Each structure stands twice: as C-alpha cells, then as structure tokens.
C-alpha cells in the first residue's frame, strides 16, 4: 500500500520495553488452532443502496488440534445463519452457537455440538448482512459527478490491514493464506464488476432476480487483505490491441477520463516487464487491472490483480498534471507493481513485519522506475528521501522496523515512515553491501508468509553463491537495523595531521541533544580521498561494530590528501561528523571546485553539517561556510538538501534580527539560478529542473525578491483575466501562493471557485495546497473549517491537506492552525482520512513548533485528548515533544553563532566592496591626473 505524497511520515510510538507485549496484547491474535484452505464468497452489492449489503461465505477449514470451537474474525455485521459440518458427514449440522466480540478483537467464535478432530476437514457456511464502511476501510460507497448524468455511486474496497473481516467472516491475519472463489451480484446499471481474477466460464451459482451475476476464477493462495471489489459504471483502456506486457492489462476510471489513463497504461506495462526481468519471476495472474477511484484512503493498494488507486495517483492530464504529480504516479504504479511479488507472492507472517512489504516496495518504487525512466534520476532523488526520513527517525520514541503490533490501532500505526522510507533506505544500504546482483536472487522466496530471518537466510544463500562475501552474516548485520529504532552518527577523526589512519566511532543520532541512547549497529563504511576522488565503488571497505571500541582504519595516501569523505554516494543509512580540519577542507573544496565531489556527497555534506550543527555536534559556522558554495551549484539534488536546512532556519529565526540577514543571504545565494531558471520551462530542461525551479522561485518569492513577487502577481492576474492564460502546472502553486500572501479576497475567491468547479484531481491538489497561503484571517478560518464542515466540497481523503498546507505556509498561519487543531481535534479525527490524516498533521507540527509557548500548548492538547489518541497519534505527539525541546535548546545554544556569522559575512562583504571602490577611485584619479 502506498500513502500519497509520502504521506506516511508520522513517527510511530515504540511500545514500552519494560512490558511483556505478547502477554498484554497476545489475545488479539487468532489462536492458530485451525486454518482455512478455501473460501467461496457470494456478495450482493447495489451501489444505489448505501447502507448495507448481504452475502454468504463457505469456508473449508482444517483444525490443528481436537477442538469444539472455531475462531475467526467478523466486524460490524449481522450473522443470519451458520451451518458447520465435516467433509465426510456433510448431512449433519454440528453448529451449536456463536459469539461475536463487541471489542476490537473482532473474534467470531463458533462452537460445535461435538468435538472436531484434528486435521479432519470441516465446512462452515455463514449467511450475513454487513454495513458499508463510512471511513473507506472495508467495502464502501464512493460518489462522483458525471457530466450530463449527475451524481453517480460506485462500490469499492480497502481491506488492508484488518478490514476483510468487515466484508465477510474470515481469518483476517496475513499468514492465514487460502484460495478465494468470488461471486458478485450487481444491478445492470453498474456493468463494470471486477475482483482479483477474471470471470469464469464454468458457472454454478444460482441467478438472483434484478441482478447480474459475476462468477470469478479461483485466486492463487493469498492473504485475505489482498482481496478487492469494484462495482461501477467505469470504462477502461487496455493493452489488448498493442501489448507491451504479455498479460491483459487494463486501466479503469470514471467515464470520460480514459485519455488521462494513457501514461498509466504505457508506464505500468513497461515497469512490469522490467520488474519481471529483474526478479526473474513471472507475474502469476492472468490479468492486471488498475482502477482510479474518486475516494480512497491510501494512495493505492496492491490487491492482487485489481490494484486500486486514488485518482491523483493514477491519472495524468496534459497541461494540468505537474511534473511532481506525474513522478508520483510513476513511482506509485511501480510501488504497487513490486507488491505483486513482495507482498502478494511473499507476505509478512504478521503486521509486526509490515516493513517486509512496504520497505521493499518503497525501495523498488524508485529503483524500478529508474529501470524504465532513467532520465528521471530516481536513485539520485532517493538521497533526499533518506535525508527526509532521518528527521523522523531521530527521536527516541520512534519504533524499530520490526515492531510488535496486535490491536487494529497498533497495526494501522505501523504503516508509517519507518515501514516505508526508513526500511527502503536500509534496503538500499543492504543492496550496496551485498552487491546489487545478489539482491534479486535473494528475493526468490516461495509463496509463503515469512519473517525477516527467512529473508536473511535467502539473501545469505544468494550471497554465498556469488563471488562476493561479507565478514559478517547478513542476519547478524540486519538484526540490529531491524529491531532498534533510530540510526547512528559516525564521528571520524584523523589520528594525527600526518597520520595514515582515521578512527571511526558511532553513537545514536537524536535531534534533542538532552537525550541519549546506547544503541549501536553493524555499520558498513567506505571512503574516498581528494587525491583519488573515485566515488563509484560503494561496497563496504570496513565495518564499525557494536559493543566494540572505535574502528581504526589505515588508509594509504591519507597524509597527502587535503580531504576525505566517508559513505560514498550516501549509500549507508547514517550521518558522518568529521574533525574540524576535514570539515574546513571540504568547505574549501566545495567553494573552489565542487564538481570534484560526487553530487550525492555534496548533498550529504550539506545535510549532515546543518543537522549536526542543529543538534549541537558542530559549530554553525561550518555548515554556513559550506552553504556559500551553492552560489555555483547547478544540480537539483544539493539544493533539495539545503532547502530543508533553510526551511528550519526560517522557522527558528523568524521574528529575530538575524532573519532579515538570512533572507538577504538566500536571495544572493539563489540569484544566479533565479536568473537562469526563471518562470518559464525550457525544452532543454531535464526532468528534475521543475523541482529545482520551484525551490529557487519559492525561496525568492518567500524571502523578499520583489521581482519574483511582482511576476507571480502578473501571472495570476493574467489568469484571472483570461483562463486560457493559465500558468504552467509546475509553477502554479508558487504563483497562486504569492497571490494569496497579501490577503487578497478576490484572488482567494477566484481560486476557491476553481477548486469547487474542478473535476481533475491534479488541479484540485494544486489549488488546495495554494489556498492555505492566504494571510487573510477570515479566509484562513473559513479554509480551516472546511476540515470539519460536513457540507465541505473537499473530499475526506484530502481534508488533512488543508491543515498541513496551512501549517507550512507561514508562521502566522501555523499558529492559527495549531489553535484550530487544539480546539477541534475531536471533530477533526473522524473527518480526515483514517490511515494517516491526523498523523500527517501532527508530523507537520513536529517540524514547525519551536517555542516554550508551543510546548505548553501541546501539553494542554495532550491532556485534553489523550483518551482518544490512536497509537499513531500518540507517536506523533511524542515526536512533537522531542522536536520542540530540541528547537527550544537551539535558540539558547545556536542563535548568537548564526546571527554573528551573518553579521560578519555582510561586514566582510561591505569591507571588500569598499576596498574595491577605493581601488577603482585610485585608478580613476590616476587616469584623470595622467
């Protein structure tokens, strides 16, 4: 499952280590005394009837022990009848009674009149009536406006992680795999009915008056959460006339939107071919459907054979869809395609190992997209993803990758930045130390539910069969990376100025300098010297071990080198802190000949130095001196790194005397690129230039470049005067935001009206993020209240964006958003999409709140709502607390240094300018006298 725009960036709270978690929560797991082998499910689905649906399920079950009780899951349904018999005595009903839990275990306990014998096949028939979900988890009704028709309903589903039980009684844990046989009855008005498999020809189910019958082929053995349903009037485009991928491939969407599915059809096929070749493992099913639905809780879901997407994650409109959205479409398609192998063929034994699904999909959404579209530079961009997740993983309360979860709330909470971005980053590191060619062989695990040790054994076997070897077993290396939260910072020092060796010590990196932890890892290291700046070989040259003294490494030629760099191309998941001599040498190298250093290491140096300074491990003079080189940097990736550092400085310096100097510095540093990139895209632009242009324009418009502000006002006014003069999609957010920062009511109303009128999800996303930029207090209040207004035109899945965008738009808007959330959280919680909406809001606050007053407000917030917080929300609050404490410490420890550096920088420049003027005047006088 992919949550849109990297939305799963909330931290997750580690359960207290001093508790026996399995004792406290173990009763949430099925007892394991029986398992299913086959389900035969019949559902009667009428999208016009929006309250309930009916169905029946036949389940073949094998008891593992002698028992008089079968335990499975059922949720929010009425059981109408149950019949239970053995396969060898089908005429005798052994059913006695049942109970259905009223708590969140969701257990359906079926008791029998006599003991069931171990390993003797039994058959259970259950008839039921169930409710459509009102939160997009389970089987639910979605709606859209169809031109010339009006409002149209459809029914679709989202069953991951614990909501198959909401559709029919089942064993709803991933390890209970079985074959599923599906039959759906739907009214003729909804002719597009799809599930995981194609329709079958050997029909056996009875007809139902007033409904069409759709009987589907049996699935492969799979987990229940991978089932999916679509009952609609959708239309499709397909590869049936021109197949790139040798399997029936269709893209379904609302009538009239088929032209927007062209990219998904083309890229989706090419990507499947590339992944088949890479994994050397053929896609197993006879068809692959992609479906774009208007309302969807996640970004997309990897249901085997019927992948469901939010519209903005699948459909692209020429002239409307931005480069960023198109890239997201590509990476999300690749993410879900990879799940056809890692997640569907191979599933986690339990949601404790969510990262086995999502970490691999996260890594391959970038690696696999680059296989098809190398010009997108996805693996270069991955470094920015690594640096982004460092922010989430640098708090003491963060959970590890392998994180025991039991309750539904805990399970949903584990779909977070750790399971996705951190796990993907660690897998990227593993790819480099086991070598790329060993990784696909190690992924060929049988169609089972697995645990991390199963994966590590497979990888070790692949490694042992290759020409490459490691001094440590893969399982030993990975054990600490997967079972400990956080990551290390390596402190690297030359033993002496003329020595040939360095020492490398590790410590857990935490944002709050007042906190510490003794966690340690097996850390792969490599290095490069200024005398031989070859960054291409990224395999490990040494290992920093846990529970060992600092590693001492002899590096031939080190005394002759001006500088050295650890962690080539930032492939390792850690930060690096050098001695001051090396930091200054790196700053000098960047300012004199930055291209000698690999662009990914330039980005690493920028990001590491600013974050080391932020946490008190390095004087701020060093990263600020390093940043001076950026006036000559023309590649997007290092600018992506500095953009995050500048965003933080903007927050902590706001309202101080240093802020004006900081803004002036940004304008001067970006001046060459502002002139070069401008507002107009060029045919020679590479894919990432759109991101680069946005960074430069945003920094200038936000920090007082009058030309930038005036130009955006002109572009917006041209658009208002003539809608054919729409700004290019990639700069629309900047243009619209700049036009709203002055508080103009007409501009807001113009853009709000366009949002209401738009039927394109890409355009709606741009407008929703832009409208948050208004500085008008009344309009800002109106916009925030769209989150809790039941008549709001903003879909539930998008409402959290209103608050997140408002938080990020300005310090004043952030303050109002904070007060709004504190006052209305109980109303917000059920009205934003349930998987990550509130977590995203809390995570946005964690990056922006900086003061003691903020800390006090958060404590009042916790006191007020602690009884209704989910596990993920508790995690978000923990992250806020640590980050606010760090920012309070920042002001006390770093402000004077930063203010002094900027003041000194401009005094020096002023002296240099004065000296130049004196020289020029002297020359002029000499010429005049001559």
UniProtKB/TrEMBL annotation:
Residues in Peptidase M1 membrane alanine aminopeptidase domain copies: 263-481
Compartments, record wording: Cell membrane
Protein's membrane topology: Lipid-anchor; GPI-anchor
Reactions listed under catalytic activity: Release of an N-terminal amino acid, Xaa-|-Yaa- from a peptide, amide or arylamide. Xaa is preferably Ala, but may be most amino acids including Pro (slow action). When a terminal hydrophobic residue is followed by a prolyl residue, the two may be released as an intact Xaa-Pro dipeptide
Membrane-crossing residue ranges in chain numbering: 910-928
Keywords, alphabetical: Aminopeptidase, Cell membrane, Disulfide bond, Glycoprotein, GPI-anchor, Hydrolase, Lipoprotein, Membrane, Metal-binding, Metalloprotease, Protease, Signal, Transmembrane, Transmembrane helix, Zinc
Protein's UniProt keywords contain Cell membrane: yes
Domain of life of the organism encoding this protein: Eukaryota
Site, Transition state stabilizer: residue positions: 420
Principal localisation: membrane
Binding residue positions for Zn(2+): 335, 339, 358
Cofactor: Zn(2+)
Aminopeptidase N-like N-terminal domain mapped to chain residues: 36-226
PANTHER family, per the entry: AMINOPEPTIDASE (PTHR11533:SF290), PROTEASE M1 ZINC METALLOPROTEASE (PTHR11533)
Assigned protein family: Belongs to the peptidase M1 family.
UniProt protein name: Aminopeptidase
Naturally occurring in which organism (per UniProt): Pieris macdunnoughi
Lineage: Eukaryota, Metazoa, Ecdysozoa, Arthropoda, Hexapoda
